[in-house]
Protein: AraC-type DNA-binding protein
Organism: Sinomicrobium oceani
Amino acid sequence: MTLVTISQELKETGFSIRTVKAVLKKSGGVLPGNTSEYFVILRASGDFQMFVNSKFYQVQKDYLVYIPPGQSLRFVEPHKQDIYAITFTSAFYERSAIDIYILHSDLFFSETLHIVPSFSSESDFKKLFVNRLAIYESKNKDFYTTVGHNCIEALLLDGLLNMDISGDKKKNLSELNIINNFKVLLERHYKKDRRVEFYSGLLETYPRKLTEICEHVLGKNAKKIITEKVVKEAINLLENSEMNISEITYELGFNDEGYFSNFIKKHTGKTPKKIRGKAEDRSKTLKI
């Protein structure tokens, strides 16, 4: 269990805003601190101290801290003030080429942690972010995710206004448009085709060029992005649908159940049967 994975909301929507104190309370006072695959933005009502990958940071009140995925976190006396952790996945936030550009900019991915003053006061932050999200969370889940996306965008823009993104650091927006279109096409066709050549053809570029752009912008090649999408959808069906494994095999465009099983095991370390079994065990536990 990590700082972020204890939230069922985060698992379901890919977004969460909670205080570190609330996380501590829910986890019985234990706060392991790895950000896993999540992006985290911190903001506190008072000065606080923390370690990120064993490096010490003193953070002032009303400052924003931008933490990329896969970082080890430890807070010093987190009970003393409200430290809000706005946590989200790339899948939750990325809806356009600009979203991708911002999320993969030096705001998160630079040699030093990005810590900047916020443009809003503590009362404004609670009113515009915390309280507004609480209202939508209780009344309209569909609007809640939209409001969450807008809140994250405002905090990211605050960070960008405090840093220089000119010159060599600025990613080419034409490349970002290709990435954005690639993700749209992948959403439409991942059941039909898993070849990089198929998507590069639709994008009117070369497979090698698409791979280079993916590695430049997202840090992983096109083949891996396609594979991750298929594996994610397979796990979702295995854990949440009533389809049997054979039906899931053909639903995802595989012609052979044995090949599908080997594919899933190769990329998850578990067979489809084992993934399905664990999901059924969790379901039985919840009913009890």
User: Anything to note?
Assistant: Strands lie at 15-19, 39-44, 48-52, 55-59, 63-67, 73-76, 83-88, 114-117. The first strand starts at residue 15 and ends at 19. The chain has 13 helices and eight strands.
